[in-house]
Amino acid sequence: MLPAYIPSPETGVWEIGPFPLRAYALGIIIGALLAIWIGERRFRARGGDEGVIADIAIWAIPFGIVGARLYHVVTDPQLYFADGQDPIDAFKIWQGGLGIWGAVAGGALGAYIAARRAGVSFSMVADSLAPGLLVAQAVGRLGNYFNQELFGKPTEVPWALEIDPENRPAGFVQFATYHPTFLYELLWNLAAAALLIAIDRRFKLTGGRLFALYVMFYTAGRFWIEQLRIDTVNEIGPFRLNVWTSMIVFALALAYFVWSRRRDQKVGATATAAEPTDTGDAGDTSADADTHVDVHAADDADADTDSDAVDRSRTSD
Question: Quick one: which H or E segment has residue 48?
Fold first, then answer.
């Protein structure tokens, strides 16, 4: 008979000779590889050169990891700098503790630097990577499962997660099963990634708008999942810090999405107004040609338009 709960793994570390293989690190590595693979295919489909996303990842991944760890340490300093704590533990990333907000900010900074160096559009890179980032985050959540951490409130639903007594927080030792928030976020991220791809195929979003949708989808899920968790974190008023962060980041992404759409509509209206009127006068042919050249030149100046040809995709934002 199958148990009416999800059992936790016995270990999150496997010894391979003298080297420990940690599930947490393995999840990050596999997720990063999937994000690069997906992003590379999407970038080429948008007219980009092969290998560019892999080159950008060399910058984005370490920046993202450092940013993720910094965010975690800065927002939970009591875990490392309070009385009785060892500050050196702040460097032990393999024990868990990565903040997604720091990962996105740090990774974006690394990707921006790499895109500038490569001479490609940063917004085109961001839109290409968006679905793959959600897949990477989904895979990365498996590390929380193996570490038996960041689970939710006690529950007896059939998909509840069993947590060993030594990993239960103070005040909850008497409860054996909890909401598997790692699983909720994993499924949410995969569904959001599929939705992003479907939306992009239908509407061909450019100029960083698909990346903005990625941010909105993720923060919407994190908003409700975060409120299920019972790990000790800093709170401001009625909400955990990460709930406030989700709301603020969602609002910023929405504002960018609306602004970017209106900007492109304005550019499109200007280009349409510049189109010549056909008077049937052959003597106006050269003037018409000059007008078309000016319109296309204006289009070339917009580095956020992902329908650029291959050469123009190398124009940095």
Answer: none
DSSP, residue by residue, 180-220: -HHHHHHHHHHHHHHHHHHHHHHH---TTHHHHHHHHHHHH
DSSP string, 179-190: --HHHHHHHHHH
SS3 of residue 119 by DSSP: coil
Q: What's the rounded Cα separation, in Å, for the pair 17 and 130?
A: 37
Place of tokens 């450019």: 206
CA distance 75 to 243: 13
- Per-residue model confidence as pLDDT tens digits over 178-212: 999 999 999 999 999 999 999 999 999 999 999 99
Full-model pTM:
0.83
Exposure string of 284-309, with b = 16+ CB inside 10 Å and e = fewer, is eeeeeeeeeeebeeeeeebbbbbebe
**Of 87, 92, 32, nearest to 59 (Cα)?**
32
Spatial contact of 274 and 292, defined as CB atoms under 8 Å apart = no
DSSP letter (8 states) at residue 152: B
For residue 230, which of 310, 167, 159, 294 has the smallest C-alpha distance?
A: 167
Q: Which of 134, 55, 63 is nearest to 102 (CA)?
A: 63
Query: Rounded to whole angstroms, what are the CA distances from 40 to 50, 131, 213?
Result: 7, 11, 19
CA distance 29 to 188: 20
Q: What is the rounded CA–CA span in Å between residue 126 and residue 249?
A: 16
